């Protein structure tokens, strides 16, 4: 989806240049509202960690997950603290499978609860900070994702504490007097309903096996969005009802109230964002018509990394309708994989698009999640700017990086 009209995108391109990320605040608020049935929505900020979006999340009552020291600092900069909110959920939770020394110090300093994906983390945290609040991230032995790279469960995944090691993890918690908050499962991005049922059942089973009380369970993230026209939108009420049933079963087993968290990244921000690019060259390679735009996989990596599909539209510079033609859309990077129309395994595909010409704008849709946050400086290209549209207002929320800033790191 593209939440913006052509006139606005034209004027933003003129004002800020291209390539440009543009996000829509109203879409984010809507997606948050879809999930309000959950006690706590914890935004997996890896999907988009711009501090202005984090502030928007905070204003809407959403808390955050952080997976690095940088993400913790971003959350703090956006006004989050580790303190529990009215529902008892900490403003920030740190989720990882290991600690580096500096991050361990940061979570201790700010008393940020840790969602531990390894027993070594529990040992290191327990020695440094007895009594610290922890979650256990459990790998239930199966997973599912939109690609193998986003499947985070099963024995080929490095994530979480293996389910049969639960007793060892609980022993480490006890040995160090750690405070067990809850159990967490995230089996991957793009989970379908059959896996969802499986993971809910695995959570109930886990709590029963644990033989200890927990205050909360977390459903992880993984809610998909309709990237292609005709893709179903996830039924968030159904999603909630499955997890709510699991929560009730856990609560009745424990005889206490149990708090239910959800940890979406993509669902909250993907549809809010577009990558706005300008067509800079067109050419034919044999039978293929190539349209070359000024953004590459250094900006939006998903097609090259996973063969992901992003909807596209063309804003003709002359405002005239164009015939539809099969098109390969590619970027400026010095690498053949820098193609936005590709399938898994790097196979180059064509897309039927209005015949784009030099000077037109090409819009890549649903790029608000894992777009800017996965960008790099490959080919020494500066990170691009980000704009947030909120109703009739719009503002720059990250300026474009300069080449001088790239070089500055090496001026030793
Ligand atoms: N919780 C945990 C522990 C996670 O590892 C992730 C994503 C999430 C929540 C949020 O998942 P989501 O709701 O966004 O699916 N770069 C890939 C996605 C990688 C996801 C990594 N972990 C992509 O562009 O599709």
TrEMBL record:
<dbReference type="InterPro" id="IPR022643">
    <property type="entry name" value="De-COase2_C"/>
</dbReference>
<comment type="pathway">
    <text>Amino-acid biosynthesis; L-lysine biosynthesis via DAP pathway; L-lysine from DL-2,6-diaminopimelate: step 1/1.</text>
</comment>
<feature type="binding site">
    <location>
        <position position="266"/>
    </location>
    <ligand>
        <name>substrate</name>
    </ligand>
</feature>
<feature type="binding site">
    <location>
        <position position="335"/>
    </location>
    <ligand>
        <name>substrate</name>
    </ligand>
</feature>
<keyword id="KW-0456">Lyase</keyword>
<dbReference type="InterPro" id="IPR002986">
    <property type="entry name" value="DAP_deCOOHase_LysA"/>
</dbReference>
<feature type="binding site">
    <location>
        <position position="222"/>
    </location>
    <ligand>
        <name>pyridoxal 5'-phosphate</name>
    </ligand>
</feature>
<dbReference type="GO" id="GO:0008836">
    <property type="term" value="F:diaminopimelate decarboxylase activity"/>
</dbReference>
<feature type="binding site">
    <location>
        <begin position="263"/>
        <end position="266"/>
    </location>
    <ligand>
        <name>pyridoxal 5'-phosphate</name>
    </ligand>
</feature>
<keyword id="KW-0663">Pyridoxal phosphate</keyword>
<comment type="function">
    <text>Specifically catalyzes the decarboxylation of meso-diaminopimelate (meso-DAP) to L-lysine.</text>
</comment>
<dbReference type="InterPro" id="IPR029066">
    <property type="entry name" value="PLP-binding_barrel"/>
</dbReference>
<feature type="binding site">
    <location>
        <position position="370"/>
    </location>
    <ligand>
        <name>pyridoxal 5'-phosphate</name>
    </ligand>
</feature>
<feature type="modified residue" description="N6-(pyridoxal phosphate)lysine">
    <location>
        <position position="46"/>
    </location>
</feature>
<feature type="binding site">
    <location>
        <position position="302"/>
    </location>
    <ligand>
        <name>substrate</name>
    </ligand>
</feature>
<dbReference type="InterPro" id="IPR022653">
    <property type="entry name" value="De-COase2_pyr-phos_BS"/>
</dbReference>
<keyword id="KW-0210">Decarboxylase</keyword>
<feature type="binding site">
    <location>
        <position position="306"/>
    </location>
    <ligand>
        <name>substrate</name>
    </ligand>
</feature>
<dbReference type="Pfam" id="PF02784">
    <property type="entry name" value="Orn_Arg_deC_N"/>
</dbReference>
<comment type="subunit">
    <text>Homodimer.</text>
</comment>
<dbReference type="InterPro" id="IPR022644">
    <property type="entry name" value="De-COase2_N"/>
</dbReference>
<keyword id="KW-0028">Amino-acid biosynthesis</keyword>
<protein>
    <recommendedName>
        <fullName>Diaminopimelate decarboxylase</fullName>
        <ecNumber>4.1.1.20</ecNumber>
    </recommendedName>
</protein>
<feature type="domain" description="Orn/DAP/Arg decarboxylase 2 N-terminal">
    <location>
        <begin position="36"/>
        <end position="270"/>
    </location>
</feature>
<dbReference type="InterPro" id="IPR000183">
    <property type="entry name" value="Orn/DAP/Arg_de-COase"/>
</dbReference>
<dbReference type="Pfam" id="PF00278">
    <property type="entry name" value="Orn_DAP_Arg_deC"/>
</dbReference>
<comment type="similarity">
    <text>Belongs to the Orn/Lys/Arg decarboxylase class-II family. LysA subfamily.</text>
</comment>
<dbReference type="InterPro" id="IPR009006">
    <property type="entry name" value="Ala_racemase/Decarboxylase_C"/>
</dbReference>
<feature type="domain" description="Orn/DAP/Arg decarboxylase 2 C-terminal">
    <location>
        <begin position="22"/>
        <end position="368"/>
    </location>
</feature>
<feature type="binding site">
    <location>
        <position position="370"/>
    </location>
    <ligand>
        <name>substrate</name>
    </ligand>
</feature>
<keyword id="KW-0457">Lysine biosynthesis</keyword>
<dbReference type="InterPro" id="IPR022657">
    <property type="entry name" value="De-COase2_CS"/>
</dbReference>
């Amino acid at each position: 989806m593209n939440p913006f009209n052509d006139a606005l995108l034209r004027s933003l391109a003129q004002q800020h240049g291209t390539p440009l990320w543009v996000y829509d605040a109203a879409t984010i608020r809507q997606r948050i509202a879809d999930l309000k049935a959950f006690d706590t929505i914890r935004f997996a900020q890896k999907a988009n960690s711009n501090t202005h979006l984090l502030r928007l999340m905070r204003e809407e009552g959403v808390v955050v997950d952080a997976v690095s020291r940088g993400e913790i600092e971003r959350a703090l900069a956006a006004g989050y603290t580790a303190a529990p909110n009215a529902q008892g959920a900490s403003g920030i939770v740190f989720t990882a499978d290991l600690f580096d020394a500096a991050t361990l110090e940061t979570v201790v300093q700010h008393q940020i609860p840790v969602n531990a994906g390894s027993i070594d983390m529990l040992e290191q945290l327990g020695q440094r900070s007895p009594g610290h609040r922890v979650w256990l991230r459990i790998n239930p032995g199966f997973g599912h994702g939109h690609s193998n790279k986003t499947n985070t469960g099963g024995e080929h995944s490095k994530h979480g504490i293996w389910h049969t090691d639960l007793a060892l993890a609980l022993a480490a918690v006890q040995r160090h007097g750690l405070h067990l908050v809850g159990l967490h499962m995230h089996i991957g991005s793009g989970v379908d309903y059959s896996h969802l049922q499986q993971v809910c059942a695995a959570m109930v089973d886990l709590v029963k096996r644990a033989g200890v009380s927990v205050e909360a369970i977390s459903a992880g993230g993984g809610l998909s969005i309709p990237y292609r026209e005709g893709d179903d939108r996830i039924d968030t009420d159904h999603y909630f009802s499955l997890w709510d049933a699991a929560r009730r079963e856990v609560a009745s087993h424990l005889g206490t109230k149990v708090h239910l968290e959800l940890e979406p990244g993509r669902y909250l921000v993907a549809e809010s964002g577009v990558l706005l690019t300008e067509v800079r060259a067109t050419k034919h390679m044999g039978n293929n018509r190539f349209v070359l735009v000024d953004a590459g996989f250094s900006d939006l990596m998903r097609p090259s990394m996973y063969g992901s599909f992003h909807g596209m539209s063309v804003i003709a510079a002359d405002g005239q309708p164009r015939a539809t033609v099969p098109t390969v859309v590619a970027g400026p990077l010095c690498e053949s994989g820098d193609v936005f129309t590709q399938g898994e395994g790097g196979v180059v595909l064509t897309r039927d698009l209005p015949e784009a010409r030099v000077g037109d704008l090409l819009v890549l849709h649903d790029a608000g999640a894992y777009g800017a946050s996965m960008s790099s400086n490959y080919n020494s290209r500066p990170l691009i700017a980000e704009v947030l549209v909120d109703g009739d207002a719009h503002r720059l929320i990250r300026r474009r990086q300069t080449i001088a800033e790239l070089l500055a790191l090496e001026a030793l």
